[in-house]
Amino acid sequence: MKNPCFPLAILCLLCGSLSADEKPNVIVIMADDMGYGDLSCYGAHNFETPNIDQLAAEGVRFTSGYCSASTCTPTRYSFLTGTYAFRKEGTGIAPPNGPLTIDPDSFTLPDLMKKAGYQTAVIGKWHLGLGEKGKGPDWNGELKPGPHEIGFDYNFLLPTTNDRVPQVYVENHRVLNLDPADPLWVGTKKPSEDHPTGITHRDTLKMDWSHGHNGTIHNGISRIGFYTGGHAARFRDEDLGDKWVEKSTEWIEQQVKTDAPFFLFFASHDLHVPRMPHERFQGATRLGFRADAIVELDWGVGELMKTLDRLGIAENTLVIYCSDNGPVMDDGYQDFALEKLGDHRAAGPYSGGKYSVYEGGTRTPFITRWKGHIEPGIVSDEMVCTIDIASSLAGLTGTEIPQEAFPDSFDVSGAMLGKPGAKGRATLVEQDNGNAGNFGFRAGDWKLQRHDSKKARNVTVEKELENKPAPRFQLFDLSKDPAEKNNVIEQHPDVAERMKAQLAEIIDSGWSRPQKPQ
């Protein structure tokens, strides 16, 4: 891999015609819980996603595009830090009152973009915690540290994830529209005996729960955790998709009035439970609210692309489309995702999904488009990952990164730009949630699974969520067995031993990317 600290002149030769003063705007669109087979350009045939399909037709569609973890918080942590999440404690799925998981003193992707002269924003789902370690968020005061303290100039957030309380927006450091006379309280225990929950008031729910999501009721849906107050600040689930588009459009319009390029992290929530698309999308497909939410997300992507066209900046904007993890059907609510699934296969040809280190957990849609710079219609089998976006944007913008930054992120900007002969990464560690100890390790066509927990979760997406026993090590040849059905570890013990050692070295060394020479 190319060192992202190469001088810019050499970098331009490697990456093509990019000149020193030509820094594109960058929009990273991260879907939530979207599987490899959830788009029509990746094989879905029960519904259409024309706007995302157009991105693929106008750029590069990767068949080996990955996120680094099969749950949301660790993937987002790795995306913003260029560091595998298993290297840090407390990077599993963040609880409602969790503190900021990213050290404000660390050098992050938004820090990099600011160093390169960009204005930066994150709009949408955050789920990386807010507030100081040991304290967590001050919901009625300043929510610090947060996105601003790790490099974002502006944020408009769903602070956790929408199946967790509270259902409020956070703009910059404060809860939006919070009435001081109606303070917000968030906790892990029921605040009073008569507090309505999914257990005590189940007959009032407009979407019933199946497991675990039975705390405070808001908008007819019970959540994980409890909260009171903040009524003027609460949002309607159905409006989330519209709000992300509205705020992103406003922010982009403000940036074009300046001379600085912009970096926008657009963090969708549509597919994540509780799946409650806007009324105009409900019934858009025959597959229920999950597929309806995919159609809603496709609409949102189309609206963003229309904004770029209207403002005349589409040819100076690199768009990267990805997902935070693979799919799940049965995830806590009775929303008919399984019952109406039909023959749709959300993970495409792969086994596993969210929570899993099978391919379906982390191999997801990955698309890049930059009009006039990326040849249209490229299909690439080079391996790229969301964790690589940090070093790749360093390479693309010619921005030097500190020695200790982005230890697991590779500069694969050439592959992302579809340059002939450009290579992706050679190996990738895939993890499940936080520090659970389950890993996938891909090297070429070989895939090693290491299940320290001796359990594999969500191996079959089309069934109710369950754990299955798993041997500690399995080996698969993805060229012959992409669905990871045939464990060949006994037939290839030399390959298995070599990969076990490689994986252990990456985990123990704390560093994957070749370090800058002293």
Task: Report on this structure.
The protein has helices at residues 8-15, 50-57, 72-81, 109-115, 240-255, 289-311, 359-362, 389-397, 413-416, 493-509, and strands at residues 25-31, 60-66, 119-125, 154-158, 170-171, 174-175, 185-187, 217-218, 221-222, 226-228, 262-267, 317-323, 367-369, 378-385, 427-431, 438-443, 446-451, 455-457, 467-469, 473-477. It is of the alpha/beta class. It folds into two domains: 8-17 and 26-427, Alkaline Phosphatase, subunit A (3-Layer(aba) Sandwich), CATH 3.40.720.10; 428-509, 2-Layer Sandwich (Arylsulfatase, C-terminal domain). It has a ten-stranded mixed sheet, with helices on both faces. The longest helix is centred in the middle third of the chain and has 23 residues, at 289-311. 55% of the residues are buried.
Q: Which helices and strands occur, and which strands form pairs?
A:
Elements: H1 8-15, E1 25-31, H2 50-57, E2 60-66, H3 72-81, H4 109-115, E3 119-125, E4 154-158, E5 170-171, E6 174-175, E7 185-187, E8 217-218, E9 221-222, E10 226-228, H5 240-255, E11 262-267, H6 289-311, E12 317-323, H7 359-362, E13 367-369, E14 378-385, H8 389-397, H9 413-416, E15 427-431, E16 438-443, E17 446-451, E18 455-457, E19 467-469, E20 473-477, H10 493-509
Parallel strand pairs: 1-11, 1-12, 2-14, 3-4, 3-11
Antiparallel strand pairs: 2-13, 4-5, 5-6, 7-10, 8-9, 12-13, 15-16, 16-17, 17-20, 18-19
Helix pairs in contact: 5-6
* CATH-derived architecture of the largest domain: 3-Layer(aba) Sandwich
Structural class: alpha/beta
Q: In CATH, what is the class of the largest domain?
A: Alpha Beta
Percent in strands: 15-25%
Unreliable stretches: 1-20
CATH topology of the largest domain: the name is Alkaline Phosphatase, subunit A
**Average residue pLDDT:** 94
For CATH, the homologous superfamily of the largest domain is named as Alkaline Phosphatase, subunit A
Alpha carbon gyration radius? 22 Å
